[in-house]
Amino acid sequence: MAILPITVYGDPVLKKIASPIKQVDxxxxxxxxxxxxxxxxxxxxxxxxxxxxxxxxIFIVDISPVEGYEKFKPVVMINPxxxxxxxxxxxxxxxxxxxxxxxxxxxxxxxxxxxYLDTDENIQEIEADDLFARVILHEYDHxxxxxxxxxxxxxxxxxxxxxxxxxxxxxxxVDYPITPK
Length: 181
Ligand code: NI
What we know:
Elements: H1 26-41, E1 46-48, E2 58-61, E3 75-85, E4 89-94, E5 104-109, E6 111-117, E7 123-129, H2 130-143, H3 154-168
Antiparallel strand pairs: 1-2, 2-3, 3-6, 4-5, 6-7
Bound molecules: nickel (II) ion.
Nickel (II) ion binds at residues 96-98, 138, 142.
């Protein structure tokens, strides 16, 4: 297993719609293992493949480090689709490993239903709410080229601009490997 450098704001792969996976082969399984190693090294609770510079529709979620979620089992979602979203929304502060040190309040649906392929290529459908739904929606956003600044209003986005430029220029302190400029 390898810890991979994490892409940050400004890296083109983060703005792309990720490519679907046709077959879950050994290369994909190896990638997933490296993604877990990379996420854990950075103390993250979710990671999408384009955050390790791989243009593929995969993300992983492990919220077990969060208080109250200790029993959560890590999940790998391949070619995910959000098939239902609640009208009810919640605002919660979010961070992102590709936006080091940045935090912003993001409004998202409280509950969702998601369809995805698991690593055995079985189609799964699950309902998620609360923090799990939020992390899925955040990671799904990565796969469609969207980041936190794309999910906040104009006023908040303006406030984030200076911080985003520092991140783009790697003028931030980060305690995990990131891609070179
Ligand atoms: Ni993120």
